Amino acid sequence: MEIIIIDSFEEGSSVEESVSVDGISEECTAYEGIISEKSAYTIVEKVLTTAKDDEEIKALFDQWSDDASNEENQYKDFQNLITDALDDMNRDDEGSTDNEAFSSKVWVNGDGKIVGRQFGITDGTDTTPVFTWKAPSEGEDSALLLELAADDSSFTFTGSGKTADGLLNGDYILAVNGTETVDINVENLETKPAKAGYYNGTFNISFPAAETDSSDSEADTDTSATDMLAGFGAVIKLTSDADADTSTLDLTVTTSGAALATLSITGSYGEGVEIPDFASLDKTYDATDDEAMTEYLTEINWDTFLANVKAAGVPDELATQLEDVLKAAVESASQPARRGKMRILKQTQILPQKMMQHNIT
User: What is residue 196's DSSP assignment?
Assistant: First the structure.
């Protein structure tokens, strides 16, 4: 089906253009393609016609249903829906025109490498980009721009870095609707790991305070969530050993640069997961039993976590409020009359705290 869409693009012009991101530029040839309104109908028609009798799709219905007769009825319903859609399209297609509807642009450098793509919606002579990706490079320096846009909303990820000895160091920004939301600093990230998926490197994430006009009350409302995170951050460290088939992820939550809590997750390939004998454990809690979950919540000891909160520099007043919220939540959960039904996956067992594989330090 991907081939159907690509083949439907009509070749447009090609021009020499410079692709620039964050001060890094690369000379390229830009190739443009268009899909007219009528061609768009043709694409959808071909996709639906192909899907109607596609053997792989039929196999999915066979896989999803244990009842052969039910599977046959579901597949017929699927085919009937496609038939109805094709009938509706044939009626609507009578009014379609050859006006441009979608556009595609590809930037290719002198080595034949694609360093950018853009898809847009065309209305008359105006084209509105909805997806843009650019990745120019100059020697060891490289930049990245990824942008998604729809109506009045936009999502932009951009920045640049330097790669030396296979390690990338750089700074990147995530912006939502034009407002800087997340800053990401990358340290010694392997660009070509010894084995696919086994990366080493560190990501330092921070949440800057939003800059708005104090007289703009609407803007203040839009950035309130961002301001709540200002001062907080996270450090994600990836450590992998391709030879031993092990990977470790350390996630540290910080406030004002001080570590608040750390979660470490280590994974590796093995014979399989050994499920403990629950009968041999001192105590287990059934997540489907409200009384058991209430007991679990009332027995949780938050002292270590709260001590680390204060040691990390969180103001005493805020730490006290957090403690009160935790105690109120536990107290509320211990009141059967006020406690709601806990929506937790069935057949889940919560192990004693000493068995948990993550530690707050």
Answer: T
31-57 pLDDT per residue, tens = 888 777 777 777 778 888 888 888 888
Residue 230 CB partners (closer than 8 Å, separation 6+): 207, 208, 209, 210
Q: What are phi and psi of 286, to 5 degrees?
A: -90, 115
Structure token digits, residue 146: 């990824």
Sign of the torsion angle spanned by Cα atoms 67, 70, 72, 77: negative
**Nearest Cα to Cα of residue 156 among 137, 130, 122, 136:** 130
Segment 177-190 shows an average pLDDT of 94
As a whole number of angstroms, the distance between CA 77 and CA 55 comes to 16
In tens, the pLDDT along 60-80 reads 777 665 555 565 677 888 888
Q: What is the 3-state secondary structure (H, E, C) of 149-166?
A: EECCEEEEEEEEEEEECC
Query: Within 10 A of 157 (CB to CB), how many other CB atoms are there?
Result: 16
In 3D space, the residue among 265, 268, 266, 264 whose CA is nearest the CA of residue 245 turns out to be 268
**Residue predicted with more confidence, 127 or 344:** 127
What is the rounded end-to-end Cα distance, in angstroms, of the chain? 51
Q: 194-225 in b/e burial notation, b at 16+ Cβ within 10 A?
A: eeeebbbbbbbbbbbebebeeeeeeeeeebee
Residue bearing tokens 């057949």 = 347
d(CA 244, CA 175): 38
